[in-house]
Design goal:
- The protein is of the alpha+beta class.
- Among the domains are: about 150 residues, paz domain (Beta Complex), CATH 2.170.260.10; about 130 residues, Response regulator (Rossmann fold), CATH 3.40.50.2300; about 230 residues, 2-Layer Sandwich (Nucleotidyltransferase, domain 5).
- Helix content is about 30%, strand content about 25%.
- Helix 13 crosses helix 16, helix 14 runs parallel beside helix 15 and helix 15 packs across helix 20.
- The longest helix has 23 residues.
- It is globular.
- The chain starts with about 45 loop residues before the first strand and ends in a 15-residue tail after the last helix.
- Keywords: Cytoplasm, Developmental protein, Differentiation, Hydrolase, Methylation, Oogenesis, RNA-binding, RNA-mediated gene silencing.
């Protein structure tokens, strides 16, 4: 069955030695790095990725170099926001932002709860006892916070080294947070300034002067920042390793040798003020580490392609790599084939080659002296901390992290990874409790928590949730079906008519010669499956291609289109992306005809029995009916005059600076099963907002053409929004939409619609359990773990057979819709039953899943706006 390519196939269910430019064989990196704009300070030349070791220590520490500034920050809100953000990395990376996507420090609490919403709690449904992956902070610490500036004599560039010297005097500081420049402590020092003395590795004295700046009058958000930083410092005591923004346990790694992978288990955490309590959210995460080096990838590229340099660049640029010798991660920004490890750079002791440097510094011998070097551009904060603007990496010493597209398309590999990462509820709960126990029993962690008077409850939070009733599914001929405990109604589709059928009379089937028998048998299965669902499919016109090359399909499609077909089915030998993309571009942009792309393997019967394909045939018939304008089922919807809109964004794989925003809207599901879709490219938020407003206008125009009136209500589900973008969406997108709606309705001489705007978030860290198992579909949570500054709720709408089910967060940031929380929750659950690629519920409302499919198709395959002739059909399924 067609699903496109990549991850969009799913149904929504469920990254000190002075140095100078290399010389000799080393030249300035080519490409963009040879033409960089001058920075605010003189750029430091590329240097090897080497940590600054703490004097007196035998090896490098495991943390990132910490950002710092030479000037004291002003006292007040700015101080904590900047100082705490830097201090976050002092204790192993950026702090999590709660249960939302990304893990940065909470700079401010953004209130998105509409002023007219008094209560957000519903009452409908049966009660259920729910646990969540949160622990209560039993008592909010009562400490004050004092800020100090710290100076070192002689001057020490390395922030990590400054922190090491500071840690030698922790007995005099009590609980403290130090970002390399600013010190925050809970007890004021007796003397001002206070001086400490340390010794470096050479035995020279280092004078540390600590000068009082001011007392911090912390706001609620700033206090939460500090609590997050304290927790990160406590987690350091667990001997975890920072990779990216999260902490992982390399000792507990799992080897998947057949795929040259390692899985490192770890944790992502966040402390926030929730409805009644301050809660710690903890989630189990995994980092995929490859055992192959970038040199291994280079060798493979040279063996597989003559144009290996471009192939290698394409594969590794943008990749995050780990250097084992200093346990740091870097992003590869360029490859310099004009340089190699024999190139030299300047140090205070004179020039040294990379080969000599790694041999002397780490006792590492570089074997391939002709390999190119990798270039990593340092982040601004790392540059401020003294790191070179460009860092040189040796492929042989870099390990790739994460998965590439080929790996994601490898079923065996992904299943092997999932076997270890897809934790069931019981195992996940057990690991969360183990994490809590380690924090409370490990001496180093206990000391930090005690110093800061921080006490974490040992038990997961428990509270009452609700289960909404099962939905009634409306089929053709006034037949109905009720979803089962897994919110599935597949069986009812096989023996009942579809809600709305479109007969297929004029269609073509293209296939390569070797697929002739399988194609004929599968078309027979399609006709039998369609008959059972009361859809009439006439015999197609078969076209045997001379081969399976791209141009053979394109030429045949062009010829077919001269006969004005309703649909073209293309049987392809494999999942070749170029062929698939070419077919879709031809039929979505040039000729505007729905297509069904089938892989040879998919239509090959198991054991030679054609009847084994009936399940696949049933799903394909449903897809084809939808692409023609039909609908397999409907829900019982009490509201008339309703337009439901879903919007999502997908980045272009061809142009990294471009994204595509897709909008899919219903045309009053109480009256018909029609949809409207539009997609537009954008490069920034302003373009996105303008295009979004324009596409909403198009959808309203189509609605008015159908009903001779505009919708009374508009429910907008906005997917693809990170928490850091909430303020922009609230201040720009909604404002632009409101202005546009006012203009359109005034022009039509109609009353403005009741309007609700809901941010839909799937990539969250919240997990819900009941009696050690997954919560059933329809579970709603609108208290305890929700946020007081939001009109939000969690909904478990889908069922999973393996692992832990993930709820979806719904944050209603604008509401004149006129429905109470109960009805908003029920309506949202209803909307998860209408995704026609799956006879069950999806993780998000169907219009969001449709928007994702459309944005993915355009961003991954066709890279152009589809023809307007297709905007009334679900051609992208």
């Amino acid at each position: 069955m067609e699903g496109g390519h990549g991850r969009a196939r799913g149904r929504g269910r469920a990254s000190s030695e002075g140095v100078a430019q290399p010389k000799g064989t080393g030249q300035r990196p080519g490409g963009a790095w040879g033409r960089q704009k001058p920075s605010a300070e003189a750029p430091k030349g590329p240097r090897p990725a080497a940590p600054v070791q703490a004097h007196g220590q035998g090896r490098a520490t495991l943390h990132r170099i910490t950002p710092s500034t030479s000037e004291a920050a002003p006292v007040g809100a700015e101080t904590i926001s900047a100082g705490a953000a830097a201090a976050a990395t002092a204790g192993a990376g950026d702090v999590g932002r709660g249960a939302m996507r990304g893990k940065r420090v909470i700079h401010e609490i953004i209130r998105t709860r509409p002023a007219n919403v008094e209560s957000k709690r519903g009452a409908t449904g049966s009660e259920i006892l729910v646990q969540a992956n949160y622990f209560r902070i039993l008592k909010k610490p009562t400490w004050s916070l004092y800020q100090y500036r710290v100076d070192f004599l002689p001057l020490i560039e390395s922030a990590r080294l400054r922190k090491y010297f500071m840690s030698e005097h922790k007995a005099n500081l009590g609980g403290y947070i130090f970002d390399g420049s600013m010190l925050f402590i809970s007890q004021k020092l007796a003397e001002d300034p206070t001086e400490f003395v340390s010794k470096n590795r050479e035995g020279e004295l280092v004078k540390i002067t600590v000068k009082f700046v001011g007392m911090i009058s912390t706001t609620e958000s700033q206090s939460l920042q500090i609590l997050n930083l304290i927790l990160r410092r406590a987690m350091e005591g667990l001997k975890l390793q920072l990779v990216g923004r999260n902490l992982f346990d390399p000792v507990a790694k799992v080897d998947i040798r057949e795929h040259r992978l390692q899985l490192w288990p770890g944790y992502t955490t966040s402390i926030r003020q929730h409805e009644q309590d301050i809660l710690l959210c903890a989630e189990i995460v995994h980092k995929v580490m490859r055992t192959e080096t970038l040199h291994d990838i280079l060798v493979r590229c040279t063996q597989e392609s003559r144009n290996y340099q471009e192939v290698f660049k394409k594969e590794v640029i943008g990749m995050v790599v780990l250097t084992d010798y200093n346990n740091k991660t870097y992003r590869v920004d360029d490859v310099d084939f004009n340089s190699n490890p024999l190139a030299t750079f300047e140090t205070k002791d004179g020039p040294i080659s990379y080969v000599q440097y790694y041999d002397k510094k780490y006792n590492l011998r570089i074997r391939d002296e002709r390999q190119p070097v990798l270039i990593s551009q340092s982040r601004e904060r790392d540059i401020r901390a003294g790191q070179a603007e460009l860092v040189v990496l040796i492929p042989e010493l870099c390990r790739a992290t994460g998965l590439n597209d080929n790996m994601r398309n490898n079923f065996q590999l992904m299943r092997a990874v999932a076997d270890h990462t897809r934790l069931g509820p019981e195992l996940r709960i057990d690991k969360l409790r183990q994490f809590n126990k380690r924090l409370s029993t490990t001496d180093a962690s206990m000391t930090v928590l005690k110093d800061w008077q921080m006490n974490i409850d040992a038990n997961l939070v428990e509270f009452t949730g609700r289960i909404l009733k099962n939905e009634r599914i409306v089929l053709g001929g006034k037949n109905t079906a009720t979803t089962n405990e897994a919110a599935d109604f597949t069986r009812d589709l096989r023996s009942n008519p579809m809600f709305l059928c479109v007969d297929l009379k004029n269609w073509f089937v293209l296939f390569p010669p070797r697929s002739q028998r399988e194609t004929n048998d599968f078309v027979g299965c399609l006709c039998r499956a369609a008959k059972g669902m009361y859809m009439k499919i006439d015999p197609p016109k078969y076209i045997t291609l001379k081969d399976d090359k791209v141009h053979s399909y394109i030429n045949a499609i062009e010829n077919c289109c001269n006969n004005d077909p309703q649909l073209i089915m293309c049987v392809v030998p494999n999942n070749n992306a170029e062929r698939y993309n070419s077919i879709k571009k031809k039929t979505c942009v040039d000729r505007a005809v729905p297509t069904q792309v089938m892989c040879h393997r998919t239509i090959t019967p198991k054991g030679g029995n054609p009847n084994s394909l009936m399940s696949v045939a049933t799903k394909v018939v449903i897809q084809m009916n939808c692409k023609l304008g039909g609908a397999p089922w409907m829900i019982e919807l009490p509201l008339g005059g309703l337009m439901t809109i879903g919007f999502d964004v997908c980045h272009s794989t061809r142009d990294k600076s471009k994204s595509y925003g897709a909008l899919v809207a219903t045309m009053d599901l109480k009256v018909n099963a029609k949809y409207f879709s539009a997609v537009s490219p954008h490069r920034n938020g302003e373009e996105l907002s303008n295009e979004l407003s324009l596409n909403v206008t198009k959808a309203l125009k189509e609605y008015r053409n159908l009903h001779r009136a505009l919708p009374n209500r508009i429910l907008f589900y906005r997917d693809g929004v990170g928490e850091g973008q909430f303020h922009y969406v609230l201040e720009h997108e909604i404002k632009l939409l409101k202005d546009k709606l006012k203009e359109i309705y005034k022009s039509a001489n109609e009353q403005e619609p009741r309007f609700a705007f809901v941010i839909v978030s799937k990539r969250i860290n919240t997990r819900l359990f009941t009696k050690g198992k997954n919560c059933p579909p329809g579970t709603v949570v609108d208290d305890v773990v929700t946020l007081p500054e939001r009109y939000d709720f969690y909904l478990v709408s889908q069922s999973v057979r393996q692992g832990t089910v993930s709820p979806t967060s719904y944050n209603i940031i604008y509401d004149t819709f006129g429905l109470d929380p109960d009805k908003m929750q029920i309506l949202t659950y209803k909307m998860t039953h209408l995704y026609y690629n799956w006879s069950g519920t999806t993780r998000v409302p169907a219009v969001c899943q449709y928007a994702h499919k459309l944005a993915f198709l355009v961003g991954q395959s066709i890279h152009q706006n589809p023809s307007n002739l297709l905007e009334k059909q679900l051609y992208f399924l």
